[in-house]
Design brief:
CATH topology: Lipocalin
Number of helices: 3
Shape: globular
Strand content: 35-45%
Number of domains: 1
Amino acid sequence: MIRKLLFVLFLSTSLYAQQNIIKTVDSVDIKLYSGLWYEISKIPNRFQDQCEKNATAEYQIDEDGDIIVINKCIDYENEIDVADGIAKVVDKQSNAKLEVSFVSILGWNIFWGDYWILGLEKDYRYAVIGTPSRKYGWILSRSPQMDKKDLDDCYKILEDNGYNLDKFELSVQDI
């Protein structure tokens, strides 16, 4: 009886652990990933509350190999809002797990957030970004509009990683 109980407990713990695993893509070419991305969908978050439309993320590799991040959007006063940051690769084998920081004090970035690439089309036309906590998530595209099949594929990646799709909202891109 105890053996059966322990087996059931082990099995349910294993299943729970498998359901909570976030799976990134196997490999990311950071040079191909760099450039301009348009936000297609996201889980609303406090650091983008001011954004009304046309949110973008641009990644540039500087001469030292650092990844410069420039996030932009149009705010509710119809002005451009810019957030400059830096990213670093934390999983050098795949380049799919990064951390980003937008807070610098005297040149030191002290707050870092997870930025995991969960989905990436072979031609780098779209990317699915998430975090282990599932608190944040984004769908990015190289173009301001995304076809329904690609968007459905992205949502499937998020769903397979345990995200609640009801938390996502489409972003306004009127470019």
